[in-house]
Write a structure and sequence with these properties.
Elements (H helix, E strand, L loop, with lengths): L2 H7 L16 H27 L4 H23 L2 H27 L20 H15 L3
Helix pairs in contact: 2-3, 2-5, 3-4, 4-5
Organism: Streptomyces abikoensis
Keywords: Membrane, Transmembrane, Transmembrane helix
Protein name: Integral membrane protein
Amino acid sequence: MSEHTTDMSERTDAGERSGFDLGQGPGRLLVWLYGVFTVAAASRSIVQMIMDFGRAPLAYVLSAAAAVVYAFITYSLVRGGGRARRAALVCCAAELVGVVTVGTWTLLEPSAFPDATVWSDYGMGYLFIPVVLPLTAMVWLRRAPR
């Protein structure tokens, strides 16, 4: 990490040093998991859109949207600070709503999803991590030192 990046992560929104980075301690595992899920969801959606977009456009676009949400949460956790914490909390809540909505939709109307998304069946294809991850991140973001 460059000196500039480290210095930025240690400053709060008011400019004073906080001495805390959201990406340290247990937050480091969250950063890693969100980074992995960013790559997984983006790769999956890109390949699916290139290979056969007409087959399940909704599923592929939802996987791409999940990748964007994961990327933003990863960025927010790495950036640190009060605004990044709030942004990550909002995105984690949106992610959880997405997982629950898409998960329920895939169970009630499977024909709408001829191909799975990252959030299908509450993330069953990813060992339910997509439903557990935002809950864990929200707990960490609320309890971690400010």
